[in-house]
Amino acid sequence: xxxxxxxxxxxxxxxxxxxxxxxxxxxxxxxxxxxxxxxxxxxxxxxxxxxxxxxxxxxxxxxxxxxxxxxxxxxxxxxxxxxxxxxxxxxxxxxxxxxxxxxxxxxxxxxxxxxxxxxxxxxxxxxxxxxxxxxxxxxxxxxxxxxxxxxxxxxxxxxxxxxxxxxxxxxxxxxxxxxxxxxxxxxxxxxxxxxxxxxxxxxxxxxxxxxxxxxxxxxxxxxxxxxxxxxxxxxxxxxxxxxxxxxxxxxxxxxxxxxxxxxxxxxxxxxxxxxxxxxxxxxxxxxxxxxxxxxxxxxxxxxxxxxxxxxxxxxxxxxxxxxxxxxxxxxxxxxxxxxxxxxxxxxxxxxxxxxxxxxxxxxxxxxxxxxxxxxx
Length: 376
Fold this sequence. Notes:
Blueprint: H1 10-35, H2 49-53, E1 54-57, E2 60-64, E3 69-72, E4 75-78, E5 99-104, H3 107-110, H4 121-129, E6 138-142, H5 150-164, E7 168-172, H6 175-182, H7 197-204, H8 211-214, H9 218-239, H10 249-269, E8 273-277, H11 283-290, H12 294-315, E9 318-320, H13 323-326, H14 341-357, H15 366-370
Parallel strand pairs: 5-6, 5-7, 7-8, 8-9
Antiparallel strand pairs: 1-2, 3-4
């Protein structure tokens, strides 16, 4: 039997199913974000991502759900009794003879894209520094959290410092610290002006169970990229000042320097050595993503690093600059800033080497600190 029309090929049908599906998903993400603008970082289908993953906790922006394992997209993250990611479920007051390294930062420190805790850089530090096992136990605590900034980390150390009694406080500057330079009316608790751009941008190209697949789709990247640019054009100028003038940037950098300087002073008051780490990033990905704005972007990153160097000199903090050893190795990064498992381990090695060279690690840690991967 012959039909008066020709059936489309399977490839044609599947292609249109994919395209329609992508449009539907994009529409769902935009609608759910639009209908719940006050929820801020919105999970797909109307669920509040922060509600799913974390909870408000005093003056901190939020913490993870304490003593719980949270399914965060395809990942499972264990949160301890303090509300932060760790191997152990309970962080007790420091025992006699124990040595503690407390790590602060944002999602780069949290390792929000890592399934194994050992693939986060604090997890890698703990694994390296205790292999072989030391006579004096070294505990590495991870206080990184998605969306945290230097201000949130200062508040965090103020609240928990007496309890954890760290010997070393490490702060890694992350992409959120860059973004807050551009955020109008920036507040330490995250209550910035502009209530709907962030949730929509987050829902448009946020963390998603099939995110790894979508990010490899040219059609998906085109759709999401176009939507994100449209949203920024519509509302971004109200929330962000992307063209900081030479007059506006220095006061913001000075504010950042003051906050980080206070963090160093507080660390000293707690009996801990402050360690500041400058940005680590994949310059190739940055240039690909930023295009014509790359040089301006890199210029601001360099000014932030200069600010950290000034704070380190003034406060007597240890400064670790790992980017020159990492930026030309794309395998160290998942995107422009977030570290891969290999990148987390490499950063941990650089950090431990810096601590060892200054005699800050307990006896027996030297062998682990100088270990480097072959082929780097």
